[in-house]
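It is worth pausing here to work through a concrete case rather than discussing structure prediction in the abstract. The textbook approach is simple: state the sequence, then state the predicted structure, then interpret. We follow exactly that order.
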Amino acid sequence: MNKLPGFLLSCLLAFIAGHVVNYSIIFLAIDWFDSPMLAGIGYGLCFGPPVILGWFAGVYCDRYSPRRVILIAQNSFLISLALLYVALDSTPTMQIGLLLSAAFFAGVGWSFVSPARFAALPGFIAEDKLTGGTIALNLMVMSGFGIAPMVVKNLQVSFGYEGVFVAGAIMFVVSSLLLALLRYHPESSVIKQRMEADTKPQQARNAEQQTSIWQQVVEGWQVIFRPGIVKPLLLLSMITYLLMGPMQVLLPVIAEKQLFLSEKAQGTYLSLVAFSLIIGGLISLVTRNAGKLGLQLNLCILIAAAGLGSLAIVTNLALSVIVLLTSGIAGGIAISLIVAGLNQMCEPAYRGRVMACYTIIGQVIPALSGVVFGALAQAFDAKLSLMLAGGLIVSLIVIALLRLKDVIKLESFEQQDAQKEGFEHASLSK
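Step two, the predicted structure:
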């Protein structure tokens, strides 16, 4: 197997297994200790380390092979699964320590795997197909997020958590083997960059190698904050990803205590989040060519946030499913358009760092919101916490509608070609 299909399959297996780890930590915190706050802390540790490590991951992806970064980093998830397996037969005090340690190692894995997957994508697809390929990769991300809770709940019922952890480890091993055997696409930008690198004077190549990693991190920050569409898109991604923490931490509580669903039904209900995100991603393949992208982005985020808050007061299962699907589809459209725009606007030499910033946002913001709203649920009530989350995001997107004028006026990413050229020129001048 080679090129894009094999790469996407490797990504899908890794993202399912990664989210199996995340959901296992959340479910175990609730099952063992009935603590939304502990679930939020665990989820925060799963996605907290990228706030520091993610910047260095971006540099490593630009400096070395993103594929090598992935193959090394996925071993951190195997350590996490091993710790969770040991925790099954431990004392309650030990279980807390092992649970949080497993969450930390998962966070280390996510720090490198997520940006490296996006940075590696151009090697397995023709350069002119990158936008569609990015949306396809993002669909794998969302599929992993949605399939994982169903996998966890069904395997838990049939084989216990031992079966869950063994299945997760197998998926990581198969994912790594697939990736290691892949060949680069002959028309990819990676092949082109290698040819260009071979023609560079030896002095220029030596100068690049002598640049410190910290200098390259700083260069990445400078590129991200330059005028253009990249910074506003990153800000919108921050608002969108605020949705994910409450969804993962609070929806299991809503499913159990408000909708009174069984274990398997809870897994199916939570999987609707990813199913709807996937549908939204597929719809974005069409809507990205329909114009008014800025308006699409903001309206979709607004609908997603309003739907999330509404779930706190809906007690009818059918209506709850409809609201959840609508919210998820809107969120899927928004995040797919954002990530496609970012990858399309990136100058290749800085793609790893720009996409690292995006994945840091996609990991740290949900982690922080999960901790905050999990603590609010512990102190007060899950319903109130969910309503506050929805209200906060609606308020932020209204502010974005008023302040991010460049995004509101955006018709298509193609109209930004001139800005992209300026972005690249400014980046290269560094």
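Step three, interpretation. The chain is about 85% helix and 0% strand. Residues 3-189+223-429 form a domain with the Growth Hormone; Chain: A; fold (CATH 1.20.1250.20).
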